[in-house]
Amino acid sequence: MSTERDSNGLSLIEFYRGKTLLCTGCSGFLGKVLVEKILRCLPDVKKVYLLIRPKGKSTDINGRMKKEILDSPIMNHLKEKIGEKEFYELAYSKLEAVAGDVAVPTFFVDNGEVKAQQVIDRLKKEVNVIIHSAATIGFHERLDVAIELNTFGPVNAVKFAVQCENIEAVAHISTCFVNSNTKSGTKIQEKLYPVQLPGNEDIEDFCRRVMAMTPAEAEKTSDKYLKQFGFPNTYTFTKRMGEILAEKHARGRVPLAIVRPSIVGGAMKEPCAGWVDTVSAAGSVYLFVGLGILSVLPGDAKCVTDQIPVDFVVNAMLSCPVDVNARYKRLGEMYRVYHSGSSFYNPCTWQMCVTGVVNYWRMHPSVKAIAPAEFNLITSSWYYNTQFFMSYTWIRKLYSLLATWNKSHAKIAETLIKMENRANIMKKSFAYFTSNEWIFESQHVNDIQQSIVPAERDIFFLDTKMIDWNTYFNWFCYGLHKHILKEDPPLPVTSNVVSMVSTTYSSNMASDINFVYSASGDFTRNGVTTARRELMQTVMNSQAVRYEITAEAHRSSVLEAERRAFGIMDRMFADPDHRVVRMLSWTLRKVWRRLYQSININSEEVYMLKQLASQVNKKNSDNNDGHIDGFDPSSMTHPPGPLILIPTHRSYLDFLIISYIFFAYSIPVPHIAAGEDFLNMSVVRNIFRHSGAFFIRRQFGDDPLYRSIFAQYVQHLLMDGCPMEFFVEGTRSRSGKTLQPKLGLLSIIVDSFLEKKVPNLTIVPVNISYEKLIEGQAYSDELLGNAKKKESLKNLVKARNVLGNKYGDIHVKIAPPISLADYVTQLRSQDAHLQIPRKSSGVEEDSSQNNENESQESNERSDLKDRQFDPFVHSHDKNILVRRLAYKITHELNGASIIPATSLVASIVLAYRDGISLDELNRRTEWLKQLIVERGGEVSWVAGDLKEGSIARHSQQSFSTSAVVDRALGLMSDVVVKRKFMIEPGVNSRNEHKKFIQLGVYRNQLLYLFVKESIVCCAYEQQVSKLEKDASNGADKGVNVQDLLTSCKFLSSLMRHEFVKQENPDDNDNYDAVLDKMIQRGIFIKNENHVQLPLTSVETHRFMCSLLWPFIESYWAATMAVLTLLFTGSEKEQLNSVEENVLIQRTQWLAEKLFFEDKIHFYECCSLDTIKNAINTLVTFRVLSRSSRSEKKNASEKLPPVPHVHLLPPYTEMDKLFGVVQNVQNYRKASNKTLHDMMGAASRKSVFPFSPKL
């Protein structure tokens, strides 16, 4: 016989291989999930007999098996996976129905010509495992009936098991609440609790005596014994006796697993999230809340409710027989009790339940609902009765009275009577459980979870710590909505963390306090972090820091160097305090409600993060195998390391949002890299420091001691398992698009892995998308050159007026995590060290220069080809790793973007800035949404007003385009106006042109999806313009493909600092593939080696161009400003040289001047961010060179170095530099004025449109 336990632990697949099972209760909710699990996950089971009770005179139990089990929708997922024909072949090869009745002593019954004894004789030779779950689940069944099924049912199952020749285990499915007669708050152990009957009457004799009573006598006995023993209902009482008698008859004969589920609810994952096909237990409460039938119940919202998803229970039903059999063989134990519940490891309060249920039904109301969802638990009986009267009784009495006068009210009165009766039934059934709490130890099931072989832990998951309750209640209600009400609601994949774990009243202070104390405020999973003072001493004593102190002591003294080191650490280090985190979260919770309608995050992504974080500090080697429940093991081959959170950086709120989400979901709160600017805010800096922020300079400069201290600090945080958060963009993106990555901090963090201080790092890119930025107006001022307001408490207080506005929604999207160890392995397999960064081909596309570059690259590769990529050893390889990783992170950040409707509307308004009708705006917004979706983008398509407390947010599919556009226009009312039925930018005077910049910030959120196609379209425009000037080239044929690709290559190179276009920055842009895709989409038509633009694509083409033209104009303005360097500088200083900041200001002044002279089309080209990128590109093209110079403040002191730029040969010559300007000019939007018109062909210097001495 194959063993169920290998050297690594229990294998359920191995245990059940070749086994025959007998299962009862399989036509019920729990049983059907069990059968589906066996068919899907235990393919080598030999046979499964399903005990089915014949109904009436029918003997067709196989027909009942097919109708109630095999044809059930629960099997649809398996049918889709393997095919319907293959499913039925599998089912009939494994399953067989047998006629039986758990209430009869023989367990089996005659069925037509098949006699019970024949079945018994056959099965007792075959059956190895019995799983008995049949029962009556009616809470108030008459006592004799409940005894027959719930007490003698398991006895009869055990008696048959004793007859079986090859029996290995019996699993009896009971309930955790068999001990609910104990005091509220009791911790219930996994053991049998005796029942002491009056006069020490034997339980079995008592049960037979009750069964011999008349129904009336049994009813009286029910009330008597329930009151005497304190049981809330006959279900729990008879289940308790059933356990005792089952163990009595199994003792010394057969291993018995008593499995006690708590309140069984819809599935968390299997066979699909939210699966439920019956209305029972808590599901009936949640359904009636959703229908508006139930709004109040007696109970205490602070009490713990033990609920468990059905798929966890089924995994326990399959796992416990394996465990009890193994313990019997190893230890001789004959029985074991297993609690399948959540209260011990992952307690959930009724308040969390109420919030999750109400929030779901309010966001996704049923069409069958008679009233909006509302649900409150009330502790005071007087107050409950009052609320019940106000909710049900008075209106029922009113309509009953009206019905006596007017028969038209009779139907309404009848409905209200049913509602009141239903509410009373709910009270009778559940008030006891909502008013009391018990903690059910579940150590035995947890032991099984640890014992299961790693490869099967994700198949037979048992760890209740993986349940996120907010997510679970969303899915449970979704299952009721879809499978019970038969409607088609949207998938509840997002959670709104603004209202998370609150009551239905968002202003309730008590709910906020309950929230902050129900979540975790820790900074590591085990809550242990090194104290700040101890960490400072550890860093001070590290070898690297001592080395730098010794080096610095040569210039001062050891004491002075140490004093400076402690000063650096005191200024830099965080001082985590979970109490402050709770206080900050309480405050933020209120702020979010004032500012935002919702902060949405995908619950499944949070769950994945929670699982990753849970692995970081585990010490048990069995658990540190890289296996994560609910996470695809094939995607991560190394065990996860400390989490490195890297969000997009659009707002100061970014790091607060991430910390708040982690706190709310009880994930360790990250340490955050913050700029020293925040140290100017006297109170805020302390709050941030206690919340995990550490403060660093933006530039370390020439300070090796500072860098060494920081590196050691980061290493020790990661060695403690602390999550860390920083922004790879370095600073906030004021333009709305993702900035080029900064490598410094990332390099230091990667060093912790390369120096083997930590075995791995798990890098998590997080995109935070805003419908409207709080800093939107400030950004437009800064992009136009106005000074940024410094961070200070005074300015923070002044900014409090933003709390009076609404800024729509925030969407938080977590990209797939990057295992650094896996990524290094991937780069090694790609020989990444041979991929030399591509050289610029310059601004003139000189082919000889290209050949020279290729020759140089070839020589560099030949020096490296004889070794492997190894960043642990070679600094060259480490630099490649950091650079590639930074761009991969940035690429993932773009890919995780959720584009708000404000971005779409702003893009259309800017494309038609002279005005567009509302109907046309709606049409083009819908059209743009389709373009985004076609390219794999995700759009936030929501509507509803922005008033505080508004909950008019249904499925995204239900929103009309006009409603979405109307909401977006409301959010952008400060920058967009409606004039005579036309929508246009709200620019009325010269001072309001900054609104174009603000609209550009909205628009730029979607640029990453279109940038390559926009480059192709602008290159096409340039080629068409070129052909139109030369009629002999045959413009009617279209544009030559190779000429077009050459133009694309130049334009892409020009924009290299503007956009992150691909994951690997050193790959050549493959515009052949981009063009082919555009041809497939019908944007271009290809005719041999030429392409043309069809009339049907003109709209798409012009829109694509409108996205890129503002950037091209900015670059053109920069090249025009660079012309002034020909007349700048002196031989004493340096010819053709100027301070870089002066050149930037000069470019911005020129762009604005030319715009108001109608020589530039797009005011957005005045943006400082784009101008700076243009200067960087000219440095990359070696038109300019950058250097720093220091001037003397006085005889003994120098001023800080100031960046300068100067022209490089051959661009010190007018014609060469003019050629650069002309090359960029060719790609601008067509204008009536040529470059020569603007500059003057006769004497360019004399008529240059501004003074070189600006």
TrEMBL record:
UniProt feature, compositional bias: Basic and acidic residues: 858-869
GO cellular component, one term: endomembrane system
Pfam families per the UniProt record, alphabetical: Acyltransferase, GPAT_C, NAD_binding_4, Sterile
Alphabetical list of InterPro entries matching this protein: FAR_C, FAR_NAD-bd, GPAT/DHAPAT, GPAT/DHAPAT_C, GPAT/DHAPAT_LPLAT, NAD(P)-bd_dom_sf, Plipid/glycerol_acylTrfase
Location of this chain's protein in the cell: Endomembrane system
Domain Phospholipid/glycerol acyltransferase residues, every copy: 643-771
Keywords per UniProt: Acyltransferase, Membrane, Transferase
Ranges for region Disordered: 835-869
Membrane topology summary: Peripheral membrane protein
Coiled coil stretches, renumbered: none
One MF term in the entry's GO annotations: O-acyltransferase activity
Main localization, broad class: membrane
SUPFAM superfamilies from the UniProt entry: Glycerol-3-phosphate (1)-acyltransferase, NAD(P)-binding Rossmann-fold domains
GO annotation terms (biological process): lipid metabolic process
Domain of life of the source: Eukaryota
Family that this chain belongs to: Belongs to the GPAT/DAPAT family.
Name the record gives this protein: Glycerone phosphate O-acyltransferase
Biological source species: Acrasis kona
Biological classification of the source: Eukaryota, Discoba, Heterolobosea, Tetramitia, Eutetramitia
